[in-house]
Amino acid sequence: MNESGNDTAISQTDASVVLSVNHVGKYFKLPTEQATGLKQLVINWAKGIKGYKEQHVLRDINFEVHQGDFFGIVGRNGSGKSTLLKLISGIYVPDSGSIQVNGKLVPFIELGVGFNPELTGRENVYLNGALLGFTREEIDAMYDDIVEFAELEEFMDQKLKNYSSGMQVRLAFSVAIQAKGDILVLDEVLAVGDEAFQRKCDNFFAKIKKDSSKTVILVTHDMGAVKKYCNKAVLIKEGEVLINGNKDDVANRYTLENMRADKRDTDNDKADEYPTGLNARVPLLRVNPLGPQILDCDGVFQFEVEYQYEESNPYYLAIAMHDIKRGGVTYDTGSNTIQLNRHGHCKVRFEVPLQLFNNGEFKLVVSLRTQNPDNPKITDMVAFTNDDNCCIFAVRDDRNREYALLNDRALHITMLDE
């Protein structure tokens, strides 16, 4: 059973490839010695001094995006993801490899690029649309939707320089998402506007996620957004692909990369020698089923967490149950992490009652965590189970329905009056 975060009938194997990145590399020339005149230039040439060094930003990048994907590109600052986005958008040309795009790609690398503060909001919509390659007729067709989404009907004939920063962001974002393209490329644009506008954006992404004809490529530092919206993702580190595929593996590994960089933890510098999610501190962490993996609602699913952890400090397990079919996290221990005391190679048994659930497939994901030294209320993730060492089970019961998570015996809404 494979996880799918896309709520469409089309399968990833059947969907056509709309973006193919094949062995892409990109470097820039950085000056190292400035020749002040022709004589110095000749001397440098004779000595074999180029006057620059090559900074390789991307090396042998490979991945595919299928029609209907909500695809995340993740990486720390300086990893090369913005350069990759500009290559995909046609702003840069790769020095090696190739990029193939099938469909109309609408890039929004930075919100508001191309806006002119001396023009009105209305004029800026048409200007920005023209820069994106849309005809006036196409912009005419989009205009009302853009203004309505931005909630700026009364301000469109005012100059942009009189807009607040929030109004400008709302207008730019509305242009971005209303553009009628096949592939929408967005760079760090989810946290825009006030709370009400963010809810509207959230509803838009929930809607577009279900549209199998639309593809979104999202660059973000928000791992909550990756887990919520994306069905696949890629993690870039120092110009190379570290993980490609499972969104949860990408998001969790990104969190570990940030923690490692913040703490300068030398023990974890060799994490790349281990499977995704594991490292020298936790070389083993997996979830093993202890009985049948297909049960009815009267059953109890039993499993064990097997791990290796030698350090003497207190540590914890956090367990989350993901709904594969419907998406989302069914249950998460959250702050109620499970404190453990044994060290070395250990196994801990657990069980999950199933009487609440409708039919579906579920995945158990575990992370091993330690106490945060600065805040006793939170724990830091040390390792996590990737897609290969988590555990999947299914509920199948003739009394159940398929749609909702909770079955009718667990929850029933009663009409009190008419």
UniProtKB/TrEMBL annotation:
Species classification: Bacteria, Bacillati, Actinomycetota, Actinomycetes, Bifidobacteriales
One Gene Ontology MF term: ATP binding
InterPro entries named among the record's database cross-references: AAA+_ATPase, ABC_transporter-like_ATP-bd, ABC_transporter-like_CS, ABC_transpr_TagH-like, Bact_Polysacc_Export_ATP-bd, P-loop_NTPase
Protein name (Swiss-Prot/TrEMBL): Sugar ABC transporter
Highest taxon, organism lineage: Bacteria
Gene Ontology cellular component annotations, sorted alphabetically: membrane
UniProt family annotation: Belongs to the ABC transporter superfamily.
Keywords, sorted A to Z: ATP-binding, Nucleotide-binding, Transport
Database matches in SUPFAM superfamilies: P-loop containing nucleoside triphosphate hydrolases
Keyword Transport among UniProt keywords: yes
Domain ABC transporter: 38-263
